[in-house]
Write a structure and sequence with these properties.
The complex is a heterotrimer of chains A (315), B (256) and C (430).
Chain A: H1 2-33, H2 40-58, H3 60-86, H4 91-113, E1 129-133, E2 136-139, H5 140-162, H6 164-174, H7 186-211, H8 218-233, H9 238-257, H10 262-266, H11 277-283, H12 286-289, H13 293-304
Helix pairs in contact in A: 1-5, 1-7, 1-8, 1-9, 2-3, 2-4, 2-7, 2-8, 3-7, 5-6, 5-7, 8-9, 8-13
Chain B: H1 3-9, E1 10-21, E2 24-35, E3 39-43, H2 50-58, E4 65-70, E5 73-74, H3 80-85, E6 88-90, H4 103-112, H5 129-141, H6 157-170, E7 175-179, H7 187-200, E8 205-209, H8 213-219, E9 222-227, E10 230-235, H9 237-242, H10 244-255
Helix pairs in contact in B: 4-5, 4-6, 5-6, 6-7
Chain C: H1 16-39, H2 43-69, H3 77-97, H4 106-125, H5 130-150, H6 152-155, E1 161-162, H7 179-201, H8 204-214, H9 216-220, H10 226-252, E2 254-255, H11 262-275, H12 282-300, H13 304-318, H14 322-329, H15 331-336, H16 343-369, E3 376-378, E4 381-383, H17 388-425
Antiparallel strand pairs in C: 1-2, 3-4
Helix pairs in contact in C: 1-7, 2-7, 2-10, 2-11, 2-12, 3-4, 3-10, 4-10, 7-10, 8-10, 11-12, 12-14, 16-17
Classes of the chains: A mainly alpha (315), B alpha/beta (256), C mainly alpha (430).
Chain lengths: 315, 256, 430
Amino acid sequence: MLELVVISTLNGVLFGMLLFLLSSGLTVIFSMMGVLNFAHASFYMLGAFFGFQLTKWIGFWPALVLAPLLVGAIGMAVERYGLRNTHKHGHVAELLLTFGLAFAIEEIVSMIWGKSPLDYRVPALLDFPAFTIFSTNYPAYKIFMLAVSVIIFVALLIVLKRTRVGLIVQAALTHPHMVGHLGHNVGRVFMAVFGVGSALAGLAGVIAGPALVTQSDMAASLGPILFVVIVFGGLGSLPGAFIASLVIGLVQTFAVALDGSLASAFGPLDPSAGPSVLTDIWNVTIAQVAPIVPYVLLVIILIVRPMGLMGTRES
Amino acid sequence: MSEAVTGMTAAIEVRAVEKRFGNVGIIRDLNLTVVKGERHAIIGPNGAGKSTTFNLISGHIKPTSGEVKLNGDVISGLRPFEINRRGLSRSFQVTNVFARMTVWENVRCAVLWATGQRYAFWKNVDSLPEVRERTAQILDDIHLTHRRDVPAGLLTYAEQRELEIGITIASGATVVMLDEPTAGMSHAETDRAVALIRRLTEGKTLVIVEHDMSVVFGLADRISVLVYGHIIASGTPEEIRRDPKVKEAYLGEEAH
Amino acid sequence: MTKATNSTSKAGADTSSGSLRFYGVWLIGIVALIVLPMIFSSGGSLTSFSLIGIAIVFALSYNILLGQTGLLSFGHAVHYGLGGFAACHMMNAVVSHGWPIPLPFIPLFGGLGGLVFAVIIGWVMTKRAGTVFAMISLGIGELVASSSLILRSVFGGESGITTDRTALPKMFGWSFGPQLQVYYLIAFWLVLSAIAMYALTRTPLGRICNAVRDNPERVQFIGYDPHVVRYLAFCFAGFFAGVAGGLAAINFEIANSAYLGAIQSGFVLFSTFIGGTAYFFGPILGAILVTYLQLGLANLTSAWQLYFGIIFIGIVMFSPGGIAGLVMMHRPLVRAGTLWTVIPSYLVAVVPTLALACGVILSIETVARYSGGEPIDLFGIGFKPTSPVTWVAAVVLVIGGAFVARLSWRRIAEAWDRAATVARDRGYLA
């Protein structure tokens, strides 16, 4: 049991940090531009596929740098040629544009790389067990993932607290309507923020690709969870996004690891009752419920605290 | 006018209201009485909290402490639509109409609740005689009948301001609050708007925020002066004109 | 059906010719629905018409949210799917209990299925509008879709719930076995739902929905609670989506988790938005086009969904009013008689725009078929995806087409502005 707790905590924090790599970019973009980038998870997927392809061509380490840059460049192009032109039609149009993009990116990826999972391997340098707890070998690659996300987290903190751009971003988070007063280079700031946010998502994709499954539906399956994270944390709140990322990462990891059901805890129901909703609920394992846990959390937070955990804004 | 006398006939009573945003007190110990049937202007320098006062009374924001009464009933803490249903209607400083709907639709929507249509989904909105007549009357009153089929977003600025007033009075509320109705208008347009306001609020209680002093002194029965979220003087235009505190805090400042 | 949802009623003073035209359009639509299967009577076209009918009801229900009330939902298929399941369970219950309920009443129970869920979850969901509502609808959609796989006794797991529509009591001697009878059943419910949804736009609630869409803040100050308005709109949309789901269940004789899923939700969003949300007939156009393309393209290319994505992005960026918006843009020009000044520039633009489209298609198909090597058939001309000739042709068409097309589009814009100015001067709004 203790083994399970330790391993699941490690995995949960890791998943949470990955979620934060994505949700932080999404939150900053939303706060500054008012656009909820539906295609954010697609940039994550692009990161994984670019990472895979570049690893095949030039090796993992150059890919780790190049793939996020590529994704960042695509993000900047989307902002410059897509969102900026759509802005005049309002936020719904912008959201729909990113929705269409997410759809198109998934189709393009499955067109080029196919629909089945890719053989995206952990680099040989990191392919060894870092340590052994009880009987489980914990892979070094996961430690590497954790280290990368923590480094990015710290770097983000420094940029936000210490640089001019960081101050602008912070101001935008608390006073979104002030963004308009940034002056004539507001377009460049937006493009840069969108690019960096996309690049971070791409980086998350590159490092998560070998550990999780690299497949053309990975954006569609992660995207909704990502949106749960930022609504749960409170739209526009970075600390909220951080807490929500960790909470959802941990809760989901633990749920997957637990195999119990009501039936295993309290014994099976009387079989003569026949199949019903009750027997379904009674027999389902926690692991089977894991995919819906984030959404249940979403409904609960909406009832209890509609603004989200740390949210202050109405909309 | 003493407090005891106005207590019976007050349309709006604001008692010891405070509003803080974080640690910043925007409104401090605000006391204001608007007598039924009078035209009451609130004036004050920029940033004095005039719009915040409007928002506090109309339920747009909730006071941190203190209470607001409408016709003797406490309304602070109620939602805006609940306050509106009790007979208080307000306009906005920034034009706030239904941009994609026509002028006719704009006014008609504002008439619907007051004529008891509520959320009806079983009635044809075009075949409600009372709604139609009232809408036509208001369009006529605000001189926009010839523009009835134009989407509100395509009106000229002055026309939008007139529509704004039309929407505000459409419900037939007895207490009407207008937030800078003549802002940004030319002299001729302002004169027209003032005449319009005077005519449309006949027999009603009017609270108006206005920067144009000629409008204020020409229209108001009584004036309250708001400075840094606090009413420093209330009285007839003559009293306000003579008040040394007002001269120092506001009118004097204007003269420079 | 060509009447704009937010066009003004000429209250009372309406000329009889106006109302004649209005009823005429509806009548023509109904007659077309009756006559269509007599002209195109093959099994394939009957199936297509049935699917299009269902898609129209679904898209119109979605537009109650998006076009009327300004609510962008990413989970509208939840109501469609639950309607489908409700209809299947009801049909099976009718058969096993011997209730005297004939098939044509079943879509009503589908509607109730969609409505009940909307009533339960809607109050929490519609607390907030805008982006938050969009995200919540996405989350609820995922929640229901995932839950449907867990609650096997209700949703039948992966395989779904099957039913037999011919086992229900007969009505007018119809067994509803043949597709033609099912088509008429769908057409009947299509007309009924379309009239009901159109009527909804003409009620006090329908108008206040428009007001909430335009300015939820101001609505509060004319006595209405925008939350209640959004909730009611959500319930109506849920009901009619459920009717569409019930029709689908009758048509396919099955309901499964795919009915509820994100793909179905995306499909209705595409249909509605491509058709145009500002006019009542927009979603009808969109549903016809998208369903037709879906049926037609799927046989032609494996990348058909990508074309949808591209069409959708194009509409969002260049014509957010959708096809209906594009069509209605020309109404003042037609009335003012200045349309003819624009047409030459349209004709000029056709060639480079087509070249650009061909270039894009060629590029996509080259990538899609590169590994397989099947030839591309573009308007009778064969291209090999592995041949450099194809690549060069694609690049030339895309770059050259884009360059010339942009110039021609600019000319359209100029010609259009001139025509619109004249129309405005003549007193027609543009």
